[in-house]
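tl;dr need the bound structure. longer version: we got a ligand (heme C) that a collaborator sent over and nobodys looked at where it sits. i said id run it. heres the input, straight from their email, havent touched it
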Amino acid sequence: MFKQLTAFSIIGLSVLGLAGMAATTPELGRKLTDTDLDSLDVAILPDGQGLPQGQGTAAEGKPVYAVHCASCHGVEGMDGLHDRLAGGVGSISSSRPVKTLGSYWPYATTVFDYVRRAMPFHFPGSLSDDEVYAVTAYLLFLNGIVDESRVLSQTSLPEVKMPNQGNFFWRSFEAEARP
Ligand code: HEC
């Protein structure tokens, strides 16, 4: 019993000790500011909510793609070392589906969101918003979805209809909810 009490006292003292230490931590780091949070809050919804100001065309995106993307995805997005980005339209229901932006992705706004947050793979976040609009336009151009001079921006990008959009269905969880 005495041993147990001693053990508890030691734990108790240690906890008290830790609590005491917490009050005098070395104050590493700094408080997050609204600007810090804004830079992390980059999600873009399918309807375009969250898109930043800026614009670009496929013609402007072609050189951006050549410098920052072609080495991994191939000159025309089809024959690179990494994911294929163009072609494959109509193949999704076949026995050999080829998933690309054109054949599979339901929203053009997601292309912008993904490229801005994740590409180029080795240096995400390095492109300006105008460059992301332009390279998004180029990817859509490679898929035959927009022409070279179509200006994509905060307002026009959400208007782009992707070929496979109609094959995505939203489940209504309210309707399925059990009483
Ligand atoms: C160093 C190689 C590399 C470079 C450069 C690169 N990517 Fe990628 N990319 C990848 C890899 C690897 C993936 C797959 C990532 C994963 O599945 O998590 C990918 C995936 C993608 C996808 C998603 C494809 C899909 O259908 O899932 C897109 C879109 C894309 N990249 C666009 C770009 C664009 C635009 C650029 C240039 C701004 C670029 N990438 C530069 C390696 C690269």
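gonna send this back to them w/ a short note. Residues 68-69, 71-73, 82-83, 85, 99, 101, 111, 114-115, 119-122, 127, 135 surround heme C (CB under 6 Å).
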